[in-house]
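Hi C.,

You asked whether I'd gotten around to modeling the 117-residue construct. I have! Everything is below, sequence then structure, no commentary in between.
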Amino acid sequence: QVQLVESGGGLVQTGGSLSLSCTASGMSFSDKAMAWYRQAPRKAREVVASVDTLDNIDYEYAVKGRFTISRDDAKNTVHLQMNSLRTEDTAVYYCNVDYRTRSLVSWGQGTQVTVSA
C-alpha cells in the first residue's frame, strides 16, 4: 500500500521560511520523478517543483529563486525548502509522483502552509 506523508507546514509571516518533507512508503521511490504540488482555496492543484531521477529540477515560475526541491533516495524522501514566502503561497502542499512522467499514486493528507501579511 502506497503511503505519502507530508510534514513541515505551519503559519509564517511574509518573508519567512518553511521546510517541507515528504516520505514515501510502499512504492519504489528512486526510479520515479517526484513533485511537490499545492492547492490553494478555490483553485486547482498545481505543480510547484519537480525533481527527476537524475536530479534534473524544474520550478513553477512563481517560486523560482525562492523554493528549492531535493530528494534523498536512501530515505525515500523529497524536501521543499521555501524561502521569501508570500501570502499567495498559502495552500495545502502535497507530494506525489510527477504526473507528467507516470500515473499518480494515492495522495497523502498534505501539509498546510499559511503565510500571513
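If it helps when you're writing up: The longest strand covers residues 18-25.

Thanks,
B.
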